[in-house]
Amino acid sequence: MKVIILGATGMVGEGVLLECLENQEIKEILVIGRRTCGRVDPKLTEIIHSDMYDLSSIADRFIGFDACFFSIGTTSFGKTEEEYTKLTHTLTLNFANLLVTKSKDLVFCFVSGELTDSSEKGSRMWARIKGKTENDLMKLAFKKVYAFRPGYMHPTEGQKNTQLAYKFLDWAYPALRKIFPTHVSTMKEVALAMIKSVQIGYEKQILEVSDIVELAKR
Known about the structure:
Elements: E1 2-6, H1 11-22, E2 28-33, E3 44-48, E4 67-70, H2 81-99, E5 107-111, H3 125-137, E6 144-148, E7 152-154, H4 164-168, H5 173-179, E8 184-186, H6 187-199, E9 206-207, H7 209-217
Helix pairs in contact: 1-6, 2-3, 6-7
């Protein structure tokens, strides 16, 4: 497998990258970002690109891939709907529309989030925009599009880009997993589920936490 990863400097993207580096079936990894992911490996190629809204100058590098793991994301806190739409929907669809012209036979995995609103009509601004992003991605002519909606994720050992809240809650993970099994997973399970969605597929296009955990076991 040849895979593209966007968002490797964030928690989810880094977790996916670590799992891809360990996976023997993945022979080539292309990471695209504004800054380096800080990892070096023979099967890893990294492109540093300043304008993530316009990747046309490097589009020919996207030919012949089997999967894209897209995990660029940001909080909606302090942002207007217009700002958050640009950072979430516009950024994602700009890239996906370009990618589908170069590797349409790939599986596109989009990291969304728990409580995302597929109706696009709910009261939570971020959830509506995430929902619209999922919906519009699924209209594109990729081999398959999956939307992953993780909740709390226990970080993978060795991760550098773990959010502060996760570090504070690290001690509570076993209890959280037991009390809220449908809202809690490990980062490793999320990464494994994304990889396995490409390798063996899944019966749903939208994967909630319980689906993520189930697919990771297969």
